[in-house]
Amino acid sequence: MTDQSNRFEADHAVAADMPILSVRGLGVTFDGERERPFGPPKKIQALDNITFDLERGKTLGLVGESGSGKSTLGRAILRRLPISEGRVIFDGRDISNVKGEALRRLTRDIQLIFQDPYTSLNPRMKVLELIAEPLLVHGLVSSLEEARDQVGELMRLVNLPLDALDRFPHGFSGGQRQRIGIARALALKPRLIIADEPVSALDVSVRAQVVNLMQDLQQELGLTYVFIAHDLSVVRHISHDIAILHRGHMVEMAERDALYDTPEHPYTKVLLSAVPEPDPALRRNGDCALEAHRPPELNLSGPGCRYRDCCDKSGGHCQREAPPFAKHRGGHWAACWHVSTD
Ligand SMILES: Nc1ncnc2c1ncn2[C@@H]1O[C@H](COP(=O)(O)OP(=O)(O)OP(=O)(O)O)[C@@H](O)[C@H]1O
């Protein structure tokens, strides 16, 4: 175990058996457009009744199509937007309503890795400034020179050469920029990292390197990840558990191999059937699985399962009542009347 790892552990003495993150009945509602002048804004329910636990040191892969609520869930956990319903418990503490200094402190513990390393790094700041900025903002160092050693150690962690410190980000490749973004996210020694599509903007050839780096860092520093992706092929390698979002609802969650080998929810099966086929025209059931972006508010009318219109198993029960997100065979959690319980 390295010194860096010891430092992380010493700083974060916690009950090891408690999930680092528990989300209970989480709902997030946005104000949409007004239907008439001066009328009330339409309500957009981006997330509804999301419940899951994430164990310390593990990765939850969060998968869903565009508009399914992945980023909203990430931002709700980070407390960057108001929670309408339910609770987010981080390290045994309810953080659903934290404000002020407590929220500021929380941003040290939970960090975000952005999707696009081209736009997320200020082009006018040198790498030293970019990585040192969180340390300066949180008052952990008082000058760039004081930060230099810590930043150098972060550069070592993400396999970037030290001579990069005094250069601007435009001189780096996408993969190297994402390493800078990761070093910046690590600067405050977070325990939980929300990685919002961290490899989607990168060339396919460097995606695996960044995913492998994140895995190595997880081992070395004991990090926990929520790894967001819009497709199941990206999260397989890195995830311990995988959760599937569909129109603001969690429809299935299971241990990685169980989800790929024996998917339970019809929507998961359709997403999986789309994974190996790169040509969208050839994807099976493509109309429903890979639907064009449809805001969730269009789908909230009436009772019943939100997937009912796309499901070939849909029957009367599915039309009348939404299935609960419940535990089923083989440890799968799924929201479907057609999955049998243990
Ligand atoms: N600030 C906001 N105001 C109003 N609606 C919003 C806001 N942010 C998100 N939404 C809506 O909430 C829903 C979920 O959006 P979200 O960005 O979380 O989806 P996503 O799964 O991350 O999609 P993508 O993969 O395209 O990023 C969408 O209908 C989106 O239009």
UniProtKB/TrEMBL annotation:
<dbReference type="InterPro" id="IPR027417">
    <property type="entry name" value="P-loop_NTPase"/>
</dbReference>
<dbReference type="GO" id="GO:0005886">
    <property type="term" value="C:plasma membrane"/>
</dbReference>
<dbReference type="InterPro" id="IPR017871">
    <property type="entry name" value="ABC_transporter-like_CS"/>
</dbReference>
<keyword id="KW-0813">Transport</keyword>
<keyword id="KW-0547">Nucleotide-binding</keyword>
<dbReference type="InterPro" id="IPR003593">
    <property type="entry name" value="AAA+_ATPase"/>
</dbReference>
<dbReference type="Pfam" id="PF00005">
    <property type="entry name" value="ABC_tran"/>
</dbReference>
<comment type="similarity">
    <text>Belongs to the ABC transporter superfamily.</text>
</comment>
<dbReference type="GO" id="GO:0016887">
    <property type="term" value="F:ATP hydrolysis activity"/>
</dbReference>
<feature type="domain" description="ABC transporter">
    <location>
        <begin position="23"/>
        <end position="272"/>
    </location>
</feature>
<dbReference type="InterPro" id="IPR003439">
    <property type="entry name" value="ABC_transporter-like_ATP-bd"/>
</dbReference>
<dbReference type="InterPro" id="IPR013563">
    <property type="entry name" value="Oligopep_ABC_C"/>
</dbReference>
<protein>
    <submittedName>
        <fullName>Peptide/nickel transport system ATP-binding protein</fullName>
    </submittedName>
</protein>
<dbReference type="InterPro" id="IPR050319">
    <property type="entry name" value="ABC_transp_ATP-bind"/>
</dbReference>
<keyword id="KW-0067">ATP-binding</keyword>
<dbReference type="GO" id="GO:0015833">
    <property type="term" value="P:peptide transport"/>
</dbReference>
<dbReference type="GO" id="GO:0005524">
    <property type="term" value="F:ATP binding"/>
</dbReference>
<dbReference type="GO" id="GO:0055085">
    <property type="term" value="P:transmembrane transport"/>
</dbReference>
<dbReference type="Pfam" id="PF08352">
    <property type="entry name" value="oligo_HPY"/>
</dbReference>
